[in-house]
Amino acid sequence: MTLRIAAEAQWYELFSRGARDWLRHNQKVRDTVKESLPELLSGGDLITNPANRTVLVPVRFLEHARFRLLDPGAHTGAGQGKGEPGQVLRPARVEDDEGSAEPGTEGGEVRFVLELKVDDIVDWLWEELKLPDLKPRRSATLDEPDYVREGWDKRGARSRLDRRRTVKEAVKRRSMQEAPLAFTNDDLRFRQLVRRSTPAMNAAVIFALDVSGSMQEEQRRLAKTFFFFALQGIRRQYARVETAFVAHAVEAWEFQEEQFFQVSGGGGTTASGAFRLARGLLEKRYDPSRYNAYLFYASDGENASEDRDSAAAELGGLAAELNFTGYVETGGSAFHPRETQMAEVFAGLKDKGLPVGAARLGSLEDVWNAIRAFFRDQAQAAA
Q1: CA distances (Å), 161 to each of 155, 165, 192, 229, in order?
Q2: Are strands 252-255 and 292-299 parallel, antiparallel or unpaired?
Q3: Taking the chain, what is the end-to-end CA distance rounded to the nearest angstrom?
Q4: pLDDT per residue over 258-293, tens digit each?
Q5: Angle 62-42-379 from CA coordinates, rounded to 5°
Q6: Could you tell me the pTM of the whole model?
Q7: 95 has which bridge partners?
Q8: Which domains does the chain carry?
Q9: 36: phi then psi, degrees, rounded to nearest 5
Q10: What is the signed CA dihedral for 4, 6, 7, 8, rounded to 10 degrees?
């Protein structure tokens, strides 16, 4: 008997009722998480603190669709009599001075809280974004020696004896002999180790943030969201990832993550100090000959005019030593009669063939577009 499935049948309907409910619930949870990501990431040291790797997500309780009997006391519909201007069709619920509503019998929305792992959330997003894998920079100094198994030999250390291969050799020999022995020394096969060079899997990520007075709280939140997911994408590719945080107004300082997104400055803005400090961190801590290094910089795009040449020179020298340099300009939804100074600097570096990329952030959707663009640009630059 041949079982045929109509071509018109939706794939969703091919599952049992329980599986369909699970898929529907899972998709609703994903949508809720994606919509509330800025709030989920706004608190705690989610970037560097390994102990805090879960977030709490409030999810609306879903009920199965079903028919219900109408309450005899409820009157619904349209055109039930004449209405007068100013007539109240449904009285509002009265609240006391403290804002608490009076108790009643009407139903309301039910929500429950799910505790989700950050790694699971990242896996969901990476499936949707369909991002390419990052490639370590290939150079003689970044290659690390490693021993890999390759081939067999009749002699070797007893610990590397391949028993399955040995038995196969004995079976082949006995099939051609009239009175064969069970095993001989010629049957022994040992795995061989060959020294090969493999790319270094250490990475360093430096985050730089403009904390001048023109950077608003919403702009900082978008920058933090981008920083977080950029780092998660890099962590998926490298075995060991180290981070550093640099903030600047007129001067630049290194901070811990806890203070990095809270510090604010006043006065003018000079970006060259941040790039100079980042270059010093590379020389002291993250030698480019041993690390795959990345820099991500967030700013509103403004910089002192007298600092333009200095910032371009510092950033150009820094970008030449990095795997990739990414720049996000916050407030990208606003009208820009011209490109900002920092956008022009990054555009000039890209024209020179350096591995850099730039994007504007005005909403959460812009964050996903920037992540997608940066990872694709980096994969192309490393190819």
Answers
A1: 9, 9, 10, 45
A2: unpaired
A3: 52
A4: 778 777 777 778 899 999 999 999 999 988 778 888
A5: 95
A6: 0.63
A7: 101
A8: 11-63+110-118 (no CATH), 143-198 (no CATH), 200-382 (3.40.50.410)
A9: -105, 20
A10: -170
